[in-house]
Write a structure and sequence with these properties.
about 290 residues, alpha+beta, 16 strands
């Protein structure tokens, strides 16, 4: 496997060249413009225009591809596509925005595919965009890891699906971690984690509650940081821990705090002027 990193004013691209395939993760910067329909600060028309302009400029990756976007749920659910999108999908799963862009009707936090024709898109501001690839089986995921998603360990859920359902091997799975807010920029309410776990613990089994309690206590002991009278949550550190615990290799990490650097937008810093950036993943056949 050969890693190639391309950075310019608009984007940060990481390519993994393996055998006859080029896997890619494209992280946009704020200058590209808003890419999320959920960001009500921008019109749907402007958002579509931003996506169209960007994908046309970087047509090497996007030519004849189908882009699939989603409204983020901040939980641990995902969808997986094994074939090119056709009319069979429309009624119960997707809205056709235009000829190359489709939007999933229900809320999720990750989109995966095993089809070269599809490019999953998730958006981010403070949260962590994660690209995951199975280099042997041609599988790729765009994953949104906010603090709630990370608390629920979405990485574990996706890996279980890949290994148990699709026959993936851990040695073939590689991860690229994008930019996000860092813990020292992320002041956090002391009771927020407990409140979150309390909400999701309703209507689940006793065994599931016990597992959630263990997870909650582990997070509080290891990733909640107190400085003076302020509390911080290192959910980026938790994500790295979860990935490494699964014996999955992180082949590249964009270690930039979006709160501190100007090239990316941060929801906490920019507030009502924030821009939702995007992570596109995909694969190209090469000769």
């Amino acid at each position: 496997m050969k890693i190639n990193v391309i950075q310019n004013i608009e984007t940060f691209i990481v390519e993994l060249n393996h055998q006859n395939r080029k896997y890619f993760a494209i992280f946009t910067k704020k200058v590209v413009g808003n890419l999320s329909f959920s960001n009500t600060l921008y019109s749907k028309e402007d958002t579509i225009k931003n996506i169209d302009n960007f994908t046309e400029k970087y047509s090497y990756y996007f030519y004849d591809k189908q882009i699939v976007g989603v409204k983020l749920e901040h939980k641990d659910n995902f969808i997986f596509f094994e074939k090119r999108i056709n009319e069979d999908y429309f009624e119960d799963k997707l809205i056709k925005v235009n000829e190359k862009f489709f939007f999933i009707k229900f809320e999720l936090d990750a989109i995966g595919a095993k089809n070269n024709d599809i490019i999953p898109l998730i958006t981010f501001a403070d949260c962590i965009p994660v690209a995951l690839f199975d280099l042997k089986n041609g599988i790729f995921f765009s994953i949104h890891c906010g603090w709630k998603t990370t608390c629920l360990n979405i990485i574990n859920k996706i890996l279980n699906y890949l290994i148990e359902k699709l026959g993936s091997n851990r040695d073939d799975i590689k991860v690229i971690v994008g930019p996000s807010i860092f813990y020292d920029s992320y002041e956090f309410g002391e009771g927020e984690i407990s409140n979150f776990y309390e909400q999701i613990s309703k209507n689940i089994s006793k065994e599931q509650k016990e597992l959630l309690n263990l997870r909650e206590n582990f997070i509080k002991e290891n990733f909640m940081i107190k400085k003076g009278d302020k509390n911080y949550f290192d959910f980026r550190g938790l994500l790295f821990y979860d990935i490494k615990k699964e014996n999955i290799e992180i082949v590249y990490s964009i270690d930039k705090d979006v709160f501190k650097v100007k090239e990316f937008s941060s929801f906490r810093r920019d507030k009502d002027k924030f821009i939702a950036q995007g992570l596109f993943t995909g694969v190209k056949d090469i000769t």
